[in-house]
Amino acid sequence: MSKHLRIDFVSDISCPWCVIGLKSLEEALRRVGGDVTADMHFQPFELNSQMGAAGEDIAEHLRQKYGADPEQFERSREALRARGEELGFKFQMGKRNRIYNTFDAHRLLHWAELEGRQHALKEALFDAYFAAGKNPSDHELLANIAAEVGLDRARAGQILASQEYAQEVRERERFYLEHGIHAVPAVIFNERHLIQGGQPVDVFERAIRQIIAS
Predict the structure, then answer these.
(1) Beta bridge partners of residue 38, listed in sequence order
(2) Does the pTM exceed 0.85?
(3) Which of 28, 109, 162, 181 could make an S-S bridge to 176, C-beta 3.0–4.6 Å?
(4) Distance (Å, rounded) from C-alpha 72 to C-alpha 84?
């Protein structure tokens, strides 16, 4: 009999390791197959909540925030590219040279959860930013992506033009911060078991099998 598993995936659109974590988790769930029925919820986390609309150059941003020099920056990019390739995701490093505010994307994801299209929207947003180098704070782009995954484009535009779901997103962000989540991805199983970081597939698979067996 298939076991039900709730998964809260706390992440940001602009976090490349969140892509790695999600792809690893999805592959782990495929391996487990019919033994588990997963109910996945994407929870908001902003790496750069104070960032302005124009965004920042990625290399300069990482230098100021983490002290990363150009050599470290290139090593990190290559590690991400290789991990992504292993998992079937192609990071287009040359197309992505800026990092942006993601709050409105999280508001749209909150709405998409209510409409049953959250997972599809999350994947499409990752593709738009990391594979196509597009700006995930641009309202026109966000509305177009919403339509591509089966959501109502006009309704998406209404949400983006307002502050709808802003309070709900901030409350969720605050909840996870207050419960000790300060880095992403953070993957929480059945609201009890936490795995942090872009872990290998085997780590997620082993954890899932242990949880459903307990």
Answers:
(1) 5
(2) yes
(3) 181
(4) 18
